[in-house]
Specification:
The protein has 932 residues and is α+β, with helices and mostly antiparallel strands. It contains 16 helices and 45 strands. The strands form 10 sheets. Strands 30-31-32-33-34-35-36-37-38-39-40-41-42-43-44-45 form a 16-stranded antiparallel β-sheet, with no helix packed on it. A 5-stranded mixed β-sheet has the order 1-4-5-2-3, covered by helices on one side. A 4-stranded mixed β-sheet has the order 7-6-10-9.
Amino acid sequence: MIKEGSILMSRFIRDSDLRWIKRNIPVLVSILIFFLSPPLRGNNETSALAPLISRIRITVDGEPGEAEMKKLIPMKEGDAFSLKRVTESIKQIYKSGLFSDIQVEKEGEQQVMLDFLLTKKLYVRKVTLSGSDKIPQKKLKEGLYSLREGSTFSEDNLDRAVKELEDVLKREGFYQIEVEAIPTRDALSARVDVVFFVHSAKNFVVNKIDFTGQILLSQEELKKKMRTEVGKDYIPDLLEDDFRRLRESYQSRDYRRAEVKLKNAEFDRTQGNVSLTIEMVPHERIEIIVRGAKIPLRLLKPIWEERIFEEWGLSEGEAKIINHMRKKEYLFSTVNSFVEREENKIRIVHEVSPGDKYKIQEMTFDGLSYFKPAQIKERLLLGETIPLFSRPNGARLFEIPQEIEYLYMTYGFPSTLVTLNFEKRGNKIRPIFSIEEGKQEIIESLSVEGAQMFSQEELLKQIGSAQGGAFFRPSIQKDIGKLEEFYLNQGIRGTQISAEIRALGDRNYAVDFMIKEGMKVWIENVIIVGNEVTQKKTVLREVQLKSGDAAHLDKIRDTKTRLERLAIFTVVKIEELHVSPEKENLVISVREGDRNYAGLGVGLETLSETRSLGIWNYEMRPRGTAEFIRSNIFGTASQVSLVVQVSSRERRMVFSGEQPYFFGLPVKSYLNAWLEREARKSFTYERRGLSLTGIRSLSQRKDMIFLTTLRMARTTLVELRVSESEVDRRFFPFSTTSISGSYIWENRDDPFNPKNGHFFSSVVEWAYPLFRTESDFLKTYFQFQHFVPLFPDITFSATTRLGLGRGEMPIHERFFAGGSNSFRGVGFDELGPKDPDSLKPTGGKTLLLFNFELTFPLFSSLKNLSGAVFYDFGNVFDQSRQISWDSMRNAVGLGLRYRTPLGPIRLELGWNMDPVEGEKEVLGFITIGHVF
């Protein structure tokens, strides 16, 4: 196979090529033996010198390849030539994932010249669907799996995509389909735009619908339940949905296993219509009867929708009934179940003896020695969060014994036995968990054998088990994983670890970790491939390893995370390619995403704050947002953006520049310039400004962040609807130069829809009269949120806000509160001091505000809908010395929440508990996002 000018190996991309190789293994083995065998010569003839590589050249898509690609090849010019090393080179290049075809050409015998001919793998940049307005574009894109934006492009994938689109169109009622695919490659990159043209798609109209089989309802009644109608287009997907509705109608009549299927679809292609025959097969009727208690049948009906063993179905139903009764605090319910049969009818009967209902008191624990009651409650999440919600429900009570036994097992008690007893006093009952702990199994001896690179003390620090500690076999397996991870993080590969466990008595064990250490691997080259726009130094800045370093696995993983965080790559892949037992190349393969983003948003807003549920009585005005982002500027991972917002209340234009590094320092920086005009309750202002912000993470988990901002702004009060103060000189530009520091600690489980965790932020801003500016004030602002899950889907949250200011603060720098995101007893900005003449808010230098909220589910079938009750408490003050509990305002309310990916949509009613002149007692709010 290797000869002058011949192709050595090609087409390392498709499964079909791999199958070709498998079919030709005998031929390939013969060729390999032929070239590796020494030539036949006479006895007096000496062996010829091994051929040497005199030149290695790489070509990518017909153009000379970068020098970086040569590092992928484990052989160099001057090395001895061998087919094995060529094969290894092909594999290493293939692992980069960037090339669809790899060919090698060889010239010369003793002085071998190798040409690696590479073809870039193509990726889909954009998919466009074109054709009649009737084609369902959204469903077509959803049904397109083989060729999505960002996926690999190939002719095979293109053919599969065409078939997928044809299948979707048929399901949507389009026949005689012709789909034409036209791919267009971008000459400057390895990206392809694909346009699918849909031609000759024809619809058939439903001419007739007939039903056959056992029809329990009239044909007219059945047709009313269908969306497929005579005279409308025939859509198979819609008909399948109709079958579901028809099955549900039969199931509502206790035909739990009813079948509905299309028996015949007769097409008349000349007339363009179709006649449908639908077969109804109800099977036996299954009636479920529960006597003695009110049990939702929705708990039991799904059990009997499939063909099951009756004994299993009865026991499963009993378990669900008992669990339901225990939740209702009928702790000692019993169920007797049986099956009654009639012709084509099965009756499932559950006879419930509910017993007495008890109010569950605080649980107690007997027999504890190793744990204290508070420790068990804490580990099993039974701790007292709020007094009224500290008791578990009745169903959970019966699960706790098994949970306690497993807890003890993890601490070395394999034979712990927990019994649940009850102490009854009238209608009250106290759960008593009687615990027989048994004997604890102990690790008497703990050692590490075979380690040469690290001391025993250092290795034992990596694991959770300890000499004298509890013995638990699953913990030993976890320790093996921790030791393996430790070796990998030290750059050592191939380490084998096992554990030998020996019993030293009834409850004592010796644990010996047997380690066969691998070899330390060093980085020979860091190779970056796939970056077309991004500069190499931009990628290297995030790489935590360099040539000559040990191959620490944790640093390799951190490198991948840091590159993904740049948000300029759609794919980041890191391969460790060994070039020798002790050396490897680190190949970082990236795929760049789109660099341009544009967006438009349109909404509605009221000209004034809504003060009742009748929001339709308020004049509505449109609100629009336009945004453009250009990312990866000059290949440095920086970006610029322009955002324009226009509404009846505000106009804003913001230009931002973002850099992941600030003059080489690992500090993310933002440069913002803005023009804005906003109408508030008491004033309207125009502002232009410039700010520079640096952001630095303070923890490895990135949940603690520090921000520093330098700001220069010039503000003009174009309208002031309260009495002027010395600072609020009307129409006089007020210039501010300030520096601020912010600290953020984010520990919530979900920033948009949190149920657990906390959030803390603090800001200190000092405005100093610099560069002839009038600013001279100091502001601090603190906020703390805490979310506590009381029960599944029941969450208590508390928010505290404190703002303090001093110095010459104009009205646009003071603190304001009121409205849906702060104090829900008054309108927007209306909390705190007011102008005596206009009764409009003037703001203050001090803010103190508390929000308490309890959210809970309303309907089990609507998981995203929940109810809420809240209490808001606080005020805004002219000076901090005016703070007193008597001057704090109160508001209570209730609301609905609907969960969305951007936060809950909130519909709320707030009651002002102590309204003053000009304030309403009840206000309605509709907004999105949590109170913050």
